[in-house]
Design a protein that fits this description.
mainly alpha, 261 residues, 10 helices
Length: 261
């Protein structure tokens, strides 16, 4: 999971106007009639998919995977079954792969259930969600990954953080073997190249070795690709760099690679 900058400017004014009209219409209906109406207007949030996809370089906002063989879902962070008044609010929508969205369903645990918003009291200001939110500063940083691709808490000493990560992984199915395999492959690719780059630099430090220089360039290009924001599982890639104390090496490699273009 990486932080997603989600500005109002990313959403077309025409879409916002259409969504606001639908929300106003639903607000004038009875609870049951509104539920039927909301369900019948799913094309509104479906039409938001391209804008959401552009914000994450075509990756699920929760898993950082590219959903190549199935349809994207638009997840309502606060489920529309519990928060029907937010069904058409773009700020409540997240691009999501089918598997995490289906797994999440209508679950939305809070730190204190007595503060849950209701139709009669719709403000969510007092809510403290336990589900990690990729659009909130600090939330994605609580989730990290190890060399086997498994999701873990970045600060297990923080009991609330540990609980939020545990619940988020469970609710979104972020620990499936398919996802872990993808992260594991990314970790191994990063680890191999970071160690190779470090070893090559040390070996030719006081030498003028053309072959080694070419090898360094190739490694820098590879690392630039692995750590590119459009690549899958970049949070895993950075976790690997942190584990190897190689974060500065990654930044330098990216600078070198871009100077070669």
């Amino acid at each position: 999971m990486k932080y997603i900058n989600y500005p109002v400017g990313a959403i077309e004014a025409a879409w916002r106007a259409r969504a606001e009209t639908a929300a106003s219409t639903a607000a004038q209906m009875s609870v049951e009639a509104a539920k039927v109406y909301v369900a019948s207007r799913s094309e509104i949030w479906s039409d938001l998919k391209p804008a959401l996809e552009a914000l994450s370089s075509g990756k699920c906002w929760y898993s950082e995977a590219k959903d190549r063989v199935s349809f994207w879902h638009v997840d309502h962070y606060r489920p529309k079954s519990l928060y029907p008044w937010l069904a058409f609010d773009w700020r409540n929508m997240r691009l999501c792969g089918g598997m995490p969205n289906i797994a999440k369903s209508n679950d939305f645990p809070l730190n204190d259930e007595t503060n849950r918003a209701t139709g009669a009291s719709p403000s969510t200001a007092l809510e403290v969600p336990l589900l990690l939110d990729p659009t909130q500063w600090g939330d994605p940083d609580l989730l990290t990954f190890n060399g086997t691709g498994e999701p873990t808490c970045a600060d297990p000493r923080d009991q609330v953080a540990a609980l939020r990560v545990k619940l988020s992984v469970k609710l979104l199915n972020l620990d499936t073997e398919k996802l872990c395999e993808g992260r594991r492959d990314t970790w191994r690719s990063c680890e191999r190249r970071l160690k190779d780059l470090r070893g090559t630099v040390e070996a030719q430090r006081h030498q003028n070795n053309t072959d080694a220089g070419d090898r360094l360039k190739d490694l820098c290009r590879d690392l630039d690709d692995l750590y590119d924001e459009e690549s899958e599982f970049t949070a895993t890639a950075w976790a690997c760099a942190k584990e190897l104390n190689a974060e500065m090496i990654v930044r330098l490699a990216k600078e070198v690679a871009r100077s070669l273009d």
